[in-house]
Design a protein that fits this description.
Layout: H1 2-25, H2 30-33, H3 42-71, H4 83-101, H5 110-118, H6 123-152, H7 157-185, H8 196-211, H9 221-244, H10 248-255, H11 258-265, H12 271-280, H13 293-304, H14 306-333, H15 335-347, H16 351-359, H17 362-377, H18 386-421, H19 429-456, H20 468-483, H21 491-520
Helix pairs in contact: 1-3, 1-5, 1-6, 3-6, 4-7, 4-8, 6-7, 7-9, 13-18, 14-15, 14-18, 15-18, 16-19, 16-20, 18-19, 18-21, 19-21
């Protein structure tokens, strides 16, 4: 089994090293300097191996830190309940969510496909060795941060040490059930295609995780101890069943199909995604437009693809309204909650930068534009002329702004109304700043993603994302927005600053896009 793991690890590392070298070569200036023969360069391969090792190490720790810090620790201050109990409560229910959504073993990745299907490695040895490695990474990755945040929340040391093993036990129990279900029905489940039952279970767990503490209901240390002992016993039993399972090759034969594997690796351009998109396209011949030229072309596209473009936005709006109603009820029944809400609205506007980033649909919409329009149209020379590119750019910018305005308007108005209901403010300008700053953030992200799409055009002819620069800009955008969660500033000063920045950035970005988009907006090979 150790031999299988070493072979699989080397295979995975080789794939990652080549991907790193490929990514380096995609940067605008570097790609002109480095030749195609660089894959044979030993020095560069050593450098790529070092990066690969660093990525592996970071993958063990960084995700866990962000997860506990943002999903658990960051929300503790919103509750009046005991911090230790609330920390345990949220951790427990989120672990249940993670257990059913991420089994590791049933994740159809390329390295599994290459090893088991292409290289015909022993499926059982490969599957188990890599599964045990993932569980080990879980314990090592979680332990420093359960101790760190456990100390901050004054959680007892035994619980700090137990939490990583609780996560592992839940993973084992869920995996054991999946194998039992496979034996019973002879049908393997792809963890990247959760069933309605799984999504319902996750929704209930999320509601329990964040909803129950709001009404002063949390599990305590005694209850957690009972749950932990029970899951640990079940986990050990599950581990034995998983280890003794015989039909790994049969199971992986169903999981590791080309469709499943590439549906995971190429989030932007898989056949599965294409099929889903095609089902949502409305081919009604009666769709017409009174416009002409680029506006006509674009309006027909929007009408035929309105389900893809607006479905998520409508769902977001319903959720925003539900949250607004819940907060209004909370303000009217709980004085402490009312005061806390007013304080949040006056000091935590930076937090909404991350929220607006998370709900903005521009990235998905530009992806749909490429997959269902530009992917084919960019093969025509006339479509790549400056007049056509800039004409469509203007129309698309209007559409993106309008699509994102629905949820952002609800949030902006909702915050202003909540500020008034929770006690108001001495400076009436705060109401306007709250509303306008949210709208400005929405427009900013609409401009940002469309400009990125036109300047960096990240997709190739197979609709796979291949631009390293695009990924780097995406990562920087995420980390800047995430950093804003940690900032507390008066709404008035921060809001005015954000509005001014969004206006300046949007204008500069549009000027750059108009100048360079005709040169950069092309189909990648």
């Amino acid at each position: 089994m150790i031999e299988s793991f070493i072979t699989s690890f080397r295979l995975k590392n080789t794939y990652r090293v080549n991907s790193i070298i490929y990514s380096i070569k995609q940067f605008p200036i570097i790609k002109r300097i480095l030749p195609n023969s660089l894959y044979k360069n030993k020095g560069l391969k050593i450098f790529a191996n070092i990066i690969s090792i660093l990525i592996e190490i970071l993958s063990i720790f960084v995700g866990k830190l962000i997860y506990i810090a943002s999903m658990i620790f960051a929300v503790l201050s919103f509750y009046e309940t005991n911090q230790t109990d609330t920390f345990l409560h949220i951790f427990l229910f989120l672990t249940l969510c993670g257990g059913v959504l991420n089994t590791y073993m049933l994740n159809p990745t390329k390295d599994k496909y290459y090893a088991i299907v292409i290289m015909n490695m022993d499926a059982r040895k490969y599957g188990l060795s890599n599964y045990y490695y993932q569980l080990l990474k879980l314990v090592i990755g979680f332990l420093p941060f359960t101790i760190l945040f456990g100390m901050i929340t004054k959680t007892p040391l035994w619980i700090q040490l137990a939490l990583p093993f609780f996560v592992v036990a839940i993973k084992l129990i869920v995996m054991n059930y999946s194998l039992y279900d496979f034996n019973k029905n002879q049908k393997a489940k792809n963890e990247n295609l959760p069933t309605k039952f799984v999504w319902s279970f996750v929704a209930i767990c999320l509601l329990a995780a964040y909803g129950l503490p709001a009404i002063n209901i949390t599990i305590n240390q005694t209850i957690f101890l009972c749950i932990f002992v029970f899951t640990l016993i079940l986990g050990i039993y599950s581990l034995l069943k998983i280890h003794n399972f015989k039909d790994y090759r049969k199971m992986y034969k169903q999981v590791l199909t080309i469709t499943n594997v590439y549906a995971v690796e190429n989030n932007s351009g898989t056949q599965a995604m294409k099929n889903t998109s095609l089902k949502q396209i409305e081919l009604d011949k009666n769709y017409t437009s009174n416009k002409s030229g680029f506006a006509y072309f674009h309006e027909l596209f929007v009408k035929r693809h309105r389900k893809i473009l607006t479905k998520a936005v409508k769902k977001q709006s319903i959720i925003i309204l539900a949250i607004f109603i819940a907060v209004v009820i909370g303000i009217n029944v709980n004085v402490d909650f009312k005061e806390k809400t007013n304080d949040i609205l006056m000091q935590y506007l930076p937090y909404f930068v991350f929220i607006m980033y998370a709900i903005n649909r521009s990235s998905s919409v530009t992806q749909a534009m490429f997959m269902n329009c530009d992917h084919s149209m960019l093969t025509y020379r006339i479509y790549r002329t400056p007049k056509v590119i800039l004409g469509l750019f203007k129309e698309r910018l209007k559409t993106l702004i309008i699509i994102n305005l629905l949820p952002s308007t609800l949030i902006g108005l909702g915050l202003a109304i909540l500020l008034y209901l929770s006690g108001g403010t001495e400076n009436p300008l705060n109401y306007m700043v709250l509303f306008v700053s949210i709208i400005a953030m929405s427009i900013f992200f609409s401009v940002h993603y469309l400009v990125m799409y036109y300047l960096l055009q990240p997709y190739n002819v197979n609709t796979e994302m291949r631009s390293s620069t695009y990924k780097v800009v995406q990562a920087i955008t995420y980390f800047v927005c995430y950093y804003m969660i940690q900032i507390q500033l008066p709404t008035l000063s921060f809001g005015i600053t954000v509005i001014a920045f969004c206006i300046a950035y949007s204008l500069i970005s549009l000027i750059i896009a108009y100048k360079y988009a005709p040169k950069t907006f092309k189909l990648r090979v």
